[in-house]
Amino acid sequence: MIRTKSGAAALSIASNSLLIAIKLAAGAITGSIAILTEAVHSLIDLVASVVAFISVRKADEPADAEHPYGHEKVESLAATIEGLLILVGAGIIVYEATHRLVVGAEVATLGVGIAVMGFSVLANLGVSTVLARQARAHESPALEGDAAHLRTDAATSAAVLLGLGLVQITGDAAFDSITALLVAAAIVVAGIRIIRRSSGVLVDETLPDSEMDRIEAAIAAARTPEVAGYHKLRARRAGSRRYIDLHVQYRSGTSLERAHELAHAMRASIEAAIPRAEVLIHAEPETSLRDPGRARSGPFRAG
Asked: What is residue 270's predicted lDDT score, i.e. its pLDDT?
């Protein structure tokens, strides 16, 4: 089951539900704000997991009349929502931890809290590893965001574990609130990173330079004497798919049938270099290839 995107997201939902229950119980028993903030963190992760579960199923739906380009961007939208939820959770943690530092608080029965946080670290590391593997296999932004949440949760649980240990050793409950504030800082960094990455897809940010270089190398490999050059190369990502289009100009005397054949060969070359790519090639007669608006220089682009 976990070999599929939906299965991996379902595993995350089950894991987060269990962790929320035991963290809330441990927080109530110990009175630790750090453990309670970790419960809030897991609650945010649960919401994110549900969003990821819904979005990966939606993203796999084929294109339809209302969505002719497919539904892949739903995953990036989900990842953006996950990032925003992380920032909301961090704000709640900062408020409560600061309040406790000012008014003071007692932390007791630390053994229970230490055991729960130790289990949380192991559980989140295991589930995040599964999610990250499936995210790479399916190029899923939603699963990638969910895995990032759980890795952050594992790190912050380890920090809370350390903070509880310091409270146990020193008897000073302030370490509990200080740990909670450090957790909040880590959560903010993770949230901003996720929002930045997913929002780039939503606004059709171009592909990374490494992929653009592979595209241009594939174009150069498919060049024949009939090809005069190309321009207006554009590429974007939606979910696991890459959408690439460019204008190829053919020398005078190239027949329409031959131009069509060469365009197919060039498209095949690009798709071999970039998995899950959809390529659109516009054929043009040879004219001036000067294009002041282009963003990159091609290996055989004229002008």
From this structure: 92
